[in-house]
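Hey,

Quick one before I head out. I ran the complex with copper (II) ion overnight. Inputs first:
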Amino acid sequence: MARLTTEPELRHAGLNLADDPREVREQVESDVFGFWVFLMSDAVMFALLFAVYGTMRHATAGGPGPEQEFKFHSAFWETALLLTSSFAYGMVSLSMKHARGQLWLALWLGITFCLGAGFLKMEIHDFLTMFHDGATPERSGYLSSFFVLVGMHGFHVLSGLTWILLMGVQLAVFGPDDRVKVNLIRLGLFWHFLDLIWVVIFSVVYLEGLSL
Amino acid sequence: MRRDFITYCFGYLAALSLTGIAFACVFYRLLPPVQTFALVLVLALIQVIVHMRCFLHISLKRSARADLQLILFSAMIILLMVGGTLVVLFNLSARMM
Amino acid sequence: MTFWHILLGRLTWDSLVFVEAWRNPTISEIIGGLAGGVAVLGAALLFGLITILGRWRYLWTVWLTSLDHKKIGIMYMVFAVIMLCRALIEAVLMRTQQAIAINNPGLVAPDHFAQLFSTHGTIMVFFVGMPLLTGLMNFVMPLQIGSRDVAFPYMNSISLWLTVGGGIMMMASLVVGKFSTGGWSGYPPYTELAFNGGVGPDYWIWAVSLSSLGAMMTGINFAVTVYKFRSPGMRWMRLPLFTWTTLCTAILMIFAMPPLTVATLLLAADRYLGMHFFTNDLGGNVMNFVNLFWLFGHPEVYILILPAFGVYSEVVSAFSSKELYGYTSLVIATMVIAILSFTVWLHHFFTMGQSAGVNSFFGIATMLIGIPTGVKIYDWIWTMFWGEVRFSTSMLFSIAFMITFVIGGMTGIILATPPLDYLVHNTLFLVAHFHNMLIPGTLYGVIAGYYYWFPKAFGFRLSEKWGRIAFVCWVPGFYLAFMPLYVMGASGVARRTQELFDPALRPWVIAAEIGALLLLAGLASLFIQLYVSIRQRHTTRVPVGDPWDARGLEWSMSAPPPEYNFAVIPQVSRRDPFHWQKINNGAYKPADHYRDIEVPKNSMCGVLIGLGMTACFTGLVWHMWWLAVCGFTFSLGTAIARSFMRDVRRTIPAAEVEAQHRRWLETTAAALPIPRHLEMTPENEGLAKWQG
Ligand code: HEM
Ligand SMILES: [Cu+2]
């Protein structure tokens, strides 16, 4: 069988696939793989936004730069929130894998949502403060690239939050059926992936800007 | 169950400490700016690997070839595109001075 | 802010081309008005005809909402051919303009001419080349790997309708508003708000975005299909070459679309939100755009060419009655080309001012691509060598491709040499070069593939006579139309030029004009071929499904194939599986037992999502914000609603599969095996006689 070379069970710590019939396993395999491919395409997009940011790092055109605008503490707490939410989603996956009951699942999903929402709230607050200081995206090429890069991540988080809500509803309607499970796995990949992008953002954007 | 849980916990703690070190270096200005940034980048790279390993369950041994191939190929493309962009644009701006 | 202003945004009466032509009846405006009229009338005629014939229900239930990869593939191609007609007519108009306009304003005004080359280029690349190839890959690839469908049939439908939506926007720009004048590459700062405040660049941005969204999803879909949906035993080195090129094209789509998305998105950010990515002031940097665009642009040309390489590999092997020579080297060459294509993008802007070192690096990298390409050409030649070559239409186009493409490759080496490129950059030499690659590399390939797989798709062969007539138009037409451009380019005529000033150029532009007309005649012959073939389909039916004595799995079922493709999933044990089945008496056998088959039910969600996004982007073009919001919400809502549907599959009972399969086997048993030299005659029912 060319299609299935390894046991998928360990790979997607989210789904106990071993007892399912082969067709279901294969479908899940390709569904998840397809989502990986999408994430990689998305990663290229982020990578290019980083590259553009890098080339525009000094294009402040006399306007405000990172030294004045970045807040160390909010960057730190945002990071903490997002990392914790990633851990919380890990618990979602575990509850699903070991069939710990819907309540656990819903609980951790809820926690993930709150942490993500908290992150987004802080980020929006930061943006508004910057706007208030006159650091708007129209001010300079540097600020344009900053807002598009970080804003794009924020937009992804917003999409992730919407998705979490949607999955909550689907859990209520269908219970954890196959499709809900596959989508929870994909959502998990998405959420951890956003965390990963954020790691690069806080390193390359915030810490670089603050280390001067 | 146990093992999976430990993996996540390990990942979380590792992520927190790597982040903590990076932020601390910058906050207390332990090193000159260039070295700080280099260190931050290295820490970020380690953290990316930790996330891949603990949260996304990609590893050298167990995971199916396809996922790993995909990620390595993407990494190569990203390196080419980002590296190329930086080289070309810095070269251009150097020549505009 | 009046009510009308909110409702219509930037749209006014004056946006209609007809009004413009009425007010200011110059030839140029009248041509514009006529084109708009043709677009409106054509659409009205189409709708009217379908209504009169009462075919809406049929169209909707059998085609538009279908998730069957074969039908989606065919729809892709129909759409692309419509767009091809427009783009080719525009090309002829441009050639006519240059033929007339020597020290004389000619037919179309500069601004109109600029729209012509911008729409021609954009359409040819995004709405002709890519959909034609995507259609072909959609139809053929799952059949070749022994799969019942692509990995994500529903996403396949979304891709199609997003692409069609982009095409609709392109057509709308004929009627309301003006398209971009910034060329297919849309370079800022010219396309920035400061210099180009109208809707043109916005049309370009959003039409291209729809296409690139669709292409990215297609890429994901195809890559996952090839990775995960191969039939048992179909190992990597047993894949047919067309599947290999499909995989590599899919990978290029996945990784090359993001740079385009970023480039257009940032340009949109500049235009809509007043940001400064590519502006001349406040830190903007146009070089970023150029770099991003070509990070996409170069892999894109390989997206347009690789699938055709796959087609030629199949065609040359089938019509030479031989195994493909150098299979392994062809696979490696394909992969090498795909990877190298990410390392050469800078050759599109050698003249932007990088240092000589950077330019040389990219020049050499570019030339390296010549090596794997050369390997391929040799492999095809060796495949023909001592084969029983039949000069069918497909084969003629393949041979014309090999010769023509090599010429184009050689001028490519000239362009890849930075000092030489400084001389011919942005001249007609470049225009000649890329048409020299794209016409043989995309169009000939598609024509060859179309002729080759058409009997599989529709159950009857295409007229060979008209195929040859088309060939006689397409090949000399190409040489006549584009060889003069090399000469003019080398003597310094800039591309995108609306008026010329040197009477010595007249013979060249007139030759080019005749060539363009011949190419138009070539397209017309293809339509006539289709018409004639449909008329005489009773004499060309090939129900058994293997008219060319070919080798891949796609020939192992009836023509047209059942919707589930394979009654039983084939077990593959070596390369060219069907060929070996035929030799070992393993083909045309009933299965031991049949199983129920699940296929996706039709869904209208793909159509709705595509149209919703089109509405959204059209709203963005015209600043009708309500439309943008509604369109987007509608698409999102549809996608969400669909995620709540659980009953999305339909089962075809084993008994039905068996009955159908046995019926086909009876047809096969009754058919007369045909030796190859009779394959163009009415005797050919699609059953090949085995010859040593
Ligand atoms: C079939 C016959 C074709 C003819 C007669 C034709 C003719 C032309 C002409 C006259 C131009 C304008 C040259 C100038 O700048 O002065 C042009 C540009 C262009 N063509 Fe074609 N073309 C043909 C097919 C194609 C195909 C198949 C493709 C791609 C798949 C293509 C892609 C382009 C592109 C990208 C441009 C550049 C547009 C720009 O300047 O932005 N063409 N073509
Ligand atoms: Cu190129």
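Residues 65-96 of chain B form the longest helix (32 residues).

Talk tomorrow,
K.
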